[in-house]
Prior knowledge:
- The structure holds 2 protein chains of 2 kinds.
- Chain A is 65% helix and 7% strand.
- By secondary structure, chain A is of the alpha/beta class.
- Chain A has 2 domains: 2-36 and 199-425, no CATH class; 51-173, D-Maltodextrin-Binding Protein, domain 2.
- Chain A has a 4-stranded mixed sheet, with helices on both faces.
- By secondary structure, chain B is an alpha/beta fold.
- Chain B is built from 8 helices and 13 strands.
- Chain B has helices at 42-50, 90-102, 107-116, 132-144, 162-177, 189-195, 213-220, 233-236, and strands at residues 4-13, 16-26, 31-35, 57-62, 65-66, 75-78, 150-154, 181-186, 198-203, 206-212, 224-227, 242-247, 252-256.
- Chain B is globular, with a radius of gyration of 21 Å.
- Chain B starts with a strand and ends with a strand.
- The chains are: A alpha/beta, B alpha/beta.
Amino acid sequence: xxxxxxxxxxxxxxxxxxxxxxxxxxxxxxxxxxxxxxxxxxxxxxxxxxxxxxxxxxxxxxxxxxxxxxxxxxxxxxxxxxxxxxxxxxxxxxxxxxxxxxxxxxxxxxxxxxxxxxxxxxxxxxxxxxxxxxxxxxxxxxxxxxxxxxxxxxxxxxxxxxxxxxxxxxxxxxxxxxxxxxxxxxxxxxxxxxxxxxxxxxxxxxxxxxxxxxxxxxxxxxxxxxxxxxxxxxxxxxxxxxxxxxxxxxxxxxxxxxxxxxxxxxxxxxxxxxxxxxxxxxxxxxxxxxxxxxxxxxxxxxxxxxxxxxxxxxxxxxxxxxxxxxxxxxxxxxxxxxxxxxxxxxxxxxxxxxxxxxxxxxxxxxxxxxxxxxxxxxxxxxxxxxxxxxxxxxxxxxxxxxxxxxxxxxxxxxxxxxxxxxxxxx
Amino acid sequence: xxxxxxxxxxxxxxxxxxxxxxxxxxxxxxxxxxxxxxxxxxxxxxxxxxxxxxxxxxxxxxxxxxxxxxxxxxxxxxxxxxxxxxxxxxxxxxxxxxxxxxxxxxxxxxxxxxxxxxxxxxxxxxxxxxxxxxxxxxxxxxxxxxxxxxxxxxxxxxxxxxxxxxxxxxxxxxxxxxxxxxxxxxxxxxxxxxxxxxxxxxxxxxxxxxxxxxxxxxxxxxxxxxxxxxxxxxxxxxxxxxxxxxxxxxxxxxxxxxxx
Lengths: 426, 260
């Protein structure tokens, strides 16, 4: 039995891994993702040194200089971050207001923005209102940090107008600096170790990267099973095989080939990532202790979903019909991605904990939680893994029953009721 | 020991009874023809012998054993609905099927069969490059490598050109000379008469007749004379002793009453 399963797996593995589509996909996916980061870095490099001019039309008679001073002192961390991210320097300049023709001046400045002579302009009114005029729409970080600078500058101007010591007030009202760190621990020798500062971006990036990697690998290995079985069925290759093997052996051979494909992709990506990060400061972010869990989850998820794909693919008569079942295969992968934000915001909250213990979501969600700073209680990954193993066994058993009944069946596409009946009756 | 012994086998699909209380014994070393119209139960019976379908009731023994106990290498099966992995090379594909059945490398046997069926130049070509006739020959090779003790061929000649059909026919006869038991289904009485030792006729899932060709001919045979008559059908009708007349275009067939 095992010999035949392995032989079928070997044939399917070789036939799929050495196909151009697999090889291109294997290389193209990281190239596209890496290309995005490279593109951002390149754009930042190209923009470095670029000066964007922002005009301030000051109707108050003095606030503009305070705003410019506020920006130049770079007191606003948001301004600093925004300027650094874009690789652009923003230069603020004061423009004398034309009170006789306010709208005419606004039109002139708008035309300058259109011609690229200005990035944007702000109209500072005497009624405690500032209007920012800019082209385009969407989310613009510039407005966010500019608002901070405008507030600071205007507050300074008002304090001065009220005869108060602006510096003293400013010092009293200076926002507190909040730093987030991990938990205090005790080392192997019993000494208390100070809490380490948290890199929040890295703390989010690593789990996110692992989730996307798993998504990419499982989608590339298990999801094609549905169409592939339907395609083989349409080409009538199964009846001859079934004279030699049992349907379960045939299905398990195909599932094993999918697991082989996923491990090939995993090893390729993991080694590629390690090579890419070696020598850089980011190598310290790689969660080596999670790699065994990552591989275990990949194997379980691919086994479960490819078995399901085989069962559903066998129940259809053509690849076109198989597409209607594709959502069943992609749902365990898509739902955690849709809920990424609430899951990441509260990795040990009720939603994340419950989802990570629901077997179909365990691989994606538990891995994400494990990769988060702080991790998860030690028992949870083990319980999750046992649940995944049991669910994988059950799904494979059900898929095997559907596969056996339907593999030689032709005709109309099955309904959900048919699938349940075949799964129950065998 | 008989090659196949089918005892009171019934198989239903929903409300349809495909095979109804069938009993049949196929002796070793014979060529046994399954005859019947489409949907009569020939393929279902074959699939049950091969163990693709399980009977609802009754039993099937192959070489004296329950079918599940018979090794895959002992049975070669050519299904009616043919298909091969189109992206694989012919030699690799045949070795895959052969190894799957026998558990050993079959490179030499595959090469020998490719040579025998005049396909040796196509071994390194992909299946998708083959003509329909060549694909069917490749599938036939996949069925007979390694050499099985029982060969089951479902409509082996359908869609084949006369030359390819003759090649397959000779290969079947050669296997039979080496002791292989052959079961084949066909619609063509001519094929059955020229190739088979025994015939089993099935209709609507029920056995109509079975036995050796000679015994069936003795029991049911009638003499037929083919004549061309200038007057056509009308000229033949009414002649004494003519029992049945059938217009077949170029000639009219008529059966005579015994003794006339």
